[in-house]
Amino acid sequence: MYAVVKTGGKQYKVSVGEKLKVEQIPADVDSQIVLEEVLMIADGEQVSVGAPLVAGATVQATVVAHGRGDKIRIFKMRRRKHYQKHQGHRQNYTEIRIDAISK
């Protein structure tokens, strides 16, 4: 059984017991969260697709950790104009563990 959920403007295919890193969620570590934007649920041959959401479907998850991703280096340059700009970025994330998928 798996589901497709939407959180942080992105879509993720999740199944029970799986860990994944999503955009930062304001929740404490070891707290339970409920993802209510479920776009699809598949249970064997039975597939439920929402328009746009599956009615009454939820995904329960536990917050495992918060962190910051790897540094991305941004370099902008205009040739022959003596313009160079260096910038870096580290995106915050929340690691969650999927506990249950309910219809």
UniProtKB/TrEMBL annotation:
Keyword rRNA-binding applies: yes
The keyword rRNA-binding appears for this protein: yes
A single BP term in Gene Ontology: translation
InterPro entries: bL21-like, bL21-like_sf, Ribosomal_bL21, Ribosomal_bL21_CS
Keyword list, A-Z: Ribonucleoprotein, Ribosomal protein, RNA-binding, rRNA-binding
A molecular function (GO) term: rRNA binding
A GO CC term attached to the entry: ribonucleoprotein complex
Family the UniProt entry places it in: Belongs to the bacterial ribosomal protein bL21 family.
Subunit note: Part of the 50S ribosomal subunit. Contacts protein L20.
Protein task: This protein binds to 23S rRNA in the presence of protein L20.
Protein name as it appears in the record: Large ribosomal subunit protein bL21
Lineage of source species: Bacteria, Pseudomonadati, Pseudomonadota, Betaproteobacteria, Neisseriales
Gene expressing this chain: rplU
